Amino acid sequence: MGPELLHLSAAGVSLVLDCRGPGLPSVAHWGAALDDTEVRPDLPVAAAPQPIGFSVDGAVRVSLIPEQSAGWLGSPGLAGHRDGRGWATAFETTAVEQRADAVHLKAIDATAHLELAIDLELHPAGVLRTRAAVTSTAPGTYWLEHLTIFLPVPERTAELLDFTGHHLRERQPQRTAFTHGLRVRENRTGRTGYDSAYLLCAGTPGFANRGGEVWALHTAFSGGARSIAERTYHGHSALGGGELLLPGEVGLAEGETYQTPWVYAVHSADGLDGVSSRFHTYLRSRPHHPTKPRPVVVNTWEAVYFDHDLARLTELAKAAAAIGAERFVLDDGWFGSRRDDTSGLGDWFVSPQAWPDGLAPLVGAVRELGMEFGLWVEPEMINPDSELARAHPNWIMSTGDRLPRPARHQQVLDLANPAAFAWVFQRLDALLTEHDISYLKWDHNRDLVEAGHPGSGRAAVHDQTRAVYRLLDELRERHPGVEIESCSSGGGRVDLEILERTDRVWASDCIDAHERVAIQRWTSLLIPLELIGSHVGAPLSHTTHRSLPLAFRAGTAILGHLGVEWDLTAASPADISELSDWVTLYKELRELLHTGTLVHADVTDPAYSVTGVVSQDKTDALFAVIATSTSASYPPGTVGLPGLDPGTIYHVRPQPPGDVADGNAAAWGAGLPWCTPQGVRLNGRTLGTVGLRLPVLHPDRVLLVRVTAVSARGRVTE
Ligand code: DGJ
């Protein structure tokens, strides 16, 4: 056994584990940093709830895997049984090993015949990640229902924020009071889901972008998942996460182990921006985080849909190169009988009908134009109308006696079947070997419904999700230079485990900039801008039929990994010229946007939002002032620019081509005084507190503001 109180600390966060027993370790403190001298035996005593009458006698300890035997009467951390026995556990900790900022715990229940292993890691950015594993140590089968890791939060977390959404409107925030009881967000769609809880946040009353204390948890899994927030009347509150298992999905024979997904958690003393900053720093420190400048993409989907034609697509490629694109992605429709979405999935051979000379002429043209070539695939899926389904009907996931209801005319391939896995791997490997492909857009266009192994009929979302991870891992190992985008009918698969093996997420099929403002803002709560695909669409949005000016479409799309999804061959010369200017600006700004700190002002006017990216050395920043409706105030009020260095003087002025303060005031009044190329020079403290007057903007307009340091510590050098 290790020390009785174990202290992990990084970047202003502390986690104190109470390993004094009896039973499993519990979290004595997770929140603002303590120094080692503060971690005294009295710490858990001071915060322990008072034993009350008519409940179990003695102190109740909420461990990482809470148990009834320890007095916890909320939702259990571990649920399972052996034919009705062994359902209640009383684990004893047998080992506590600490290596730098990682802890490994072991525990045993000799009566239930189970072993437990828990890993905890505190990253230098203050991101905690934890997972657990349960092993059966007796003959027979231990049927696991769920294994959920709990992290306690204090009672002052009065509000919860989590996310919901649907196709074309992913990751929309919802706030509720954190009341007594159990709030469970279950995902039963077999993929991460448009409506996944995403980041479950508990915070002090009114926590906001820049203020309040927040504890946030992300369950990193691309199959079934559960995220929970529980508050008991016994004075305990906790967030938890784990995999949602289907009936009979995990049965452990003697010696077999089940491992949970990683559960990520952060504490922020500085509101939601503090949460993002920790996650972004963590993600950027991963060895495989993309570091080469994020290339400007042109994707063919909304330009041509299934109308694949070499001449037309070569023209599109030329137009793409002309505006400065660096990657050309051929979307759905190039293979098998795939002339629409009713057939062909699974037949990963270039269609001789659509591509009589194969893909080589297009790939060659794209490469000659100086762009990378990317290809769309949907490897986990199969159309019943395909050669593959006709040859291997027993490769389709089902409960064994009927096919699941189709969705988009398609079914799911049972990738846990080694033969199906090998076939898909071989086809993808062949495509990547035969063609000069540097990028795959990996799509996944249906929920997993009644998803079982067809032979046994047993539930198989767990096996399928693990098999997909394996497929991606093996493919990346074979083709290390190829980048992969995670798409799932838009943004249905955005989580930190898929991002362990992909380089970009497609945030939504909705590229209407008005809708994208919220989708991108909330997607970026967890992941940084360089991982979020954001495209400039056609003047009339295909998914909402809203008509928006190019400056708004482009000025919001640059706050991500920029792409264009628009038939540029039909765009006007004026649009092409303006779009080229935006592409040039994105290239100039991408290093700032993709390495800087993302900040959001707390704007009280619901018509406006102010998003900024401040360079790590705080000498450069870009702010986007976005209006999505008219304001109740005319003119609107002022806003503080967050995240700047208080003592540095900055030059603040509009950033062309996003410098047009397009609004009524310009037509009927006079210009906004600071909104000129001369701008204003003020220090970061003044800009954060006194702030800038918001411009009068028409709805769905963006004004970009560039903020560059002209002196350090108050002395103007310019
Ligand atoms: C759904 C994706 O989200 C779209 O971008 C596009 O790739 C289509 N699938 C193609 O079928």
From TrEMBL:
UniProt gene name: galA_1
GO molecular function, one term: alpha-galactosidase activity
EC numbers for this chain: 3.2.1.22
InterPro entries for the chain: Aldolase_TIM (IPR013785), Alpga-gal_N_sf (IPR038417), Alpha-glycosidase_related (IPR050985), GH (IPR017853), Glyco_hydro_36 (IPR002252), Glyco_hydro_36_C (IPR031705), Glyco_hydro_36_N (IPR031704), Glyco_hydro_b (IPR013780)
Catalyzed reactions: Hydrolysis of terminal, non-reducing alpha-D-galactose residues in alpha-D-galactosides, including galactose oligosaccharides, galactomannans and galactolipids
Every Glycosyl hydrolase family 36 C-terminal domain range: 610-695
PANTHER family: ALPHA-GALACTOSIDASE C-RELATED, GLYCOSIDASE FAMILY 31
Residue ranges of every copy of the Glycosyl hydrolase family 36 N-terminal domain listed in the record: 23-252
GO biological process, one term: carbohydrate catabolic process
Name of the protein in its database record: alpha-galactosidase
Swiss-Prot/TrEMBL keywords: Glycosidase, Hydrolase
